[in-house]
Write a structure and sequence with these properties.
The chain is of the alpha/beta class. Helices cover 32% and strands 21% of the residues. The strands form two sheets. The protein has a six-stranded parallel β-sheet, with helices on both faces. A five-stranded mixed β-sheet has the order 1-3-4-5-2, with helices on both faces.
Length: 280
């Protein structure tokens, strides 16, 4: 999560900026929490920081690019840091539609492509209004393609940040051709052990606590799992804001080693999307 601390010593903020980190962790009291993010402020000066019990220090967070995608606000910068932090193996990212959850997860995964053998994007298939997808025309692949399209849209958006002949654009095509980027329904990877992979699960609020635990316990060596979702937008009738798997993970693992959580608050898709999220 994120905590805003006002009235922080201005000299401490300046040193954090200049040195990149500080061991003066008492400035976080009484809000100090493992693998947690902070906005440290004194009047007009402020800094973004990250604290972990392992290092017992506060690390400065910058709004760095990840595969052509630049964070537009503090929470997005925190999310990208968690996604690319090798000491964090499980990340949850919450936020309404348009806050950039899936885009940041994918951009961060691509930025780390050399650390993992495979990038897997998956989402549970929950038919709108709970209509069975068996009634849709076509074979199995044609039935599920519409549900996977938002993930492809994010990948294509990242690719569009580069020219066709730019290396980073070609890398995406090569990863797809070599099956090192896989986009599939979550059901397709059940039962698999995941090693040397970064695994992004979109719409995780539609999973039960048992399903989420089953997925996380499949994690093998050098595996990173990123769960994204909006706990206020649940498409299954037997789950709610408290009982869904995403909320369960956040509640049970807060402050634990290997885990970090970020809530994205500001919609960046469009003013119209923000209007709908606020008033509809």
């Amino acid at each position: 999560g994120k905590t805003l601390i006002e009235g922080v010593d201005a000299d401490a903020i300046r040193k954090l900026y200049v040195q990149g980190s500080t061991r003066k962790i008492t400035m976080l009291d009484p809000y100090r929490q493992n693998n947690h993010y902070y906005v440290l402020r004194n009047g007009s000066s402020s800094a973004l920081g990250y604290f972990s019990e392992a290092t017992r220090s506060i690390e400065r967070i910058d709004k760095d690019y990840a595969y052509g995608i630049k964070p537009r606000n503090a929470e997005q910068a925190f999310a990208l840091h968690a996604i690319t932090n090798p000491d964090v193996s499980l990340v949850t990212i919450c936020g309404v539609a348009g806050t950039g959850k899936t885009l940041l997860a994918l951009a961060g995964a691509l930025e780390q492509r050399n650390r993992f053998d495979q990038i897997i994007l998956a989402r549970p298939i929950v038919a709108l209004s709970n209509r069975d997808i068996g009634f849709l025309p076509g074979d199995a692949e044609e039935k599920i393609n519409p549900y996977m399209q938002p993930l492809w849209d994010n990948l294509n958006f990242i690719k569009s940040q580069f020219g066709e002949n730019e290396r980073k654009s070609r890398v995406i095509e090569e990863l797809k051709a070599q099956k090192k980027i896989t986009i599939c329904p979550l059901a397709y990877i059940r039962g698999r052990s995941l090693t040397n992979a970064i695994f992004i699960i979109d719409e995780a609020q539609n999973l039960t606590p048992h399903e989420v635990k089953t997925i996380i316990t499949r994690a093998g060596e050098n595996c990173k799992i990123i769960l994204t979702g909006d706990v206020r937008q649940i498409d299954t009738p037997y789950l709610d804001e408290q009982s869904n798997g995403l909320s369960y993970v956040i509640d049970r693992l807060r402050g634990k080693d290997l885990y970090a959580h970020i809530t994205l608050e500001k919609g960046e898709r469009s003013d119209l999307a923000n209007l709908a999220n606020t008033f509809l």
